[in-house]
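pinning this so it doesn't scroll away 📌
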Amino acid sequence: GDSPVMAGLGPFLPSQFQPQSATPPVAPISAASGLSLHLNGDSWVEVLDAEGKRIEHGILRAGETRDFAPGTAARVSLGNAEAVEVRVNGSVTDIAAYRRANVARFTVSSDGSLAPAGG
């Protein structure tokens, strides 16, 4: 028998004639690059950019992860620091030198190296 015919109002263009996006897709932030915080317990976190603007602030819960693209995070403060695993460019980084009374404060350079926050 006869099969129904369906029509659309949009133009049909073969794939080689489809318009292409003018901007490439943005790659997701990867835990293999930049700074990554992995919470093994609840912790308060404050992350500032180079201008001192907060890019993360508040209590993060056990099991949460926050990733920051290289050069984004400039200054980090962590409460309950023993519960936070800090990774720089995918490698676990020891933050014991920046920890006092279970609060860690450190700066992050553009190449990802850590230094005491001072002040």
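📌 and the second one:
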Amino acid sequence: MKKQKIKLVILDCDGVILDSNRLYEELYEQLFRKYGVRKSPKEIYAHFGESPMHILRVIFPGRDTRKIFADYKKQLKNISFSSKIRINRGAKNSIRDMRK
């Protein structure tokens, strides 16, 4: 059987290549303080990967989450989100190795 060359590899970026969990913790901590929620940001980890609006509905049940979502988007800009994202250890080397 002829060995086939792999032409494409698709990776989930956030959580695999990039680590943004701490940034989301910071974002949700700010929202918790503003809206008087007593939860640890780590309590939302089970919901990571779901839409932000869904997460906000879970965290703030019975509240109008449209205003909270507007604050969420505003906070994303305020904490310089993209400048704080870190590459997971070993990700660069793994990608380099896959190129070979």
